[in-house]
Design brief:
The protein is an alpha+beta fold and 114 residues long. The protein has one domain (3-113). The chain is 23% helix and 37% strand. The protein has helices at residues 21-37, 105-113; strands at residues 3-9, 12-18, 44-45, 50-51, 57-65, 73-80, 85-89, 95-96. The strands form 2 sheets. A 6-stranded antiparallel β-sheet has the order 2-1-5-6-7-8, covered by helices on one side. β6 and β7 (85-89) form a beta hairpin. The longest helix has 17 residues, at 21-37.
Length: 114
């Protein structure tokens, strides 16, 4: 059983493989914290609209697995321009994983996958 962590930050895409879901979740959390700390925290002016930092996704980290060719589980986190992190489940139709009181987005993701 393999889990794949896909890191989409800016224009680059990197993939890492893990044998264990726990290791993959630890790698995802470490990378998300690093990206969150270095978030630009500034808006973006398009031609006709202004996007606030919270509206911009600067990185998407997705876990897929455990099957290789047709993964049965896809979930991850979005790192926003203001440094906030939001956990989600799904790929094409992503649904936000609601956090319980006192729960981090990483704990919510672990709960949804566990």
């Amino acid at each position: 059983m393999r889990w794949t962590l896909t890191d989409r930050s800016g224009s680059r895409v990197r993939r890492s493989s893990f044998d264990d879901l726990g290791q993959a979740l630890e790698a995802l959390e470490g990378l998300a914290r690093e990206l969150s700390d270095s978030a630009p925290r500034e808006g973006f002016d398009a031609k006709f609209k202004r996007f606030d930092p919270v509206q911009r996704v600067i990185a998407r980290l997705e876990l897929s697995g455990p099957e290789r060719w047709a993964p049965s589980m896809r979930a991850g986190v979005d790192v926003r321009g203001d440094g906030s992190i939001e956990a989600y489940r799904g790929r094409v139709r992503r649904e936000v994983i609601e956090q319980r009181a006192g729960e981090s987005p990483y704990a919510a993701l672990r709960r949804a996958l566990g």
